[in-house]
Amino acid sequence: MLQDLAPETRLTLMKFVCSFAWADLEIRDEEREFVARLVRRLDLGSEERKQVDGWLELPPPPESVDPTRIPVEHRRVFVEAVRGVIAADGEIAEEERENLALFSALLG
């Protein structure tokens, strides 16, 4: 399913994943590992990897993660990836749970 994503959609997915990793205001090692595995699975190029690394240092600007821009046919993939990153550290903070619920509701 991930391989069906267009290159720009893959990068958008990573932007959302990184944004949700920041929900509790810190990036843990387990979240970094999840992101690294996803980057490999998506087969991102070096420039895209640099962008993802940057989002792990500073979260993407809120206005750049607009759920309405996610293609309808890929929304389930986005929700599953976000669910994966917030669960990666074994702890789901209340703000992460709330953000996931809101994100899922926005995507229908």
Based on helices, strands and strand pairing, what is the structural class?
mainly alpha
State the major sheet.
none
Question: Could you report the average pLDDT, rounded to the nearest whole number?
Answer: 94
Spatial gap, N to C terminus: 19 Å
At CATH level 3, the topology is TerB-like
Overall 3D geometry?
A: globular
Gyration radius, rounded: 13 Å
Strands, count:
0
Question: Which runs of at least 5 residues are low in confidence (pLDDT < 50)?
Answer: none
Named at the architecture level, the CATH assignment is Orthogonal Bundle
DSSP strand content: under 5%
The helical percent reads 55-70%
Number of domains: 1
Order of helices and strands: HHHHH
The CATH top-level class label: Mainly Alpha
Number of helices: 5
Short description, anyone?
The chain has 108 residues and is an all-alpha fold. The protein has helices at residues 7-21, 29-42, 46-57, 75-87, 94-107.
What attributes characterize this protein structure?
single chain; 108 residues; mainly alpha; TerB-like; 5 helices; 0% strand; globular
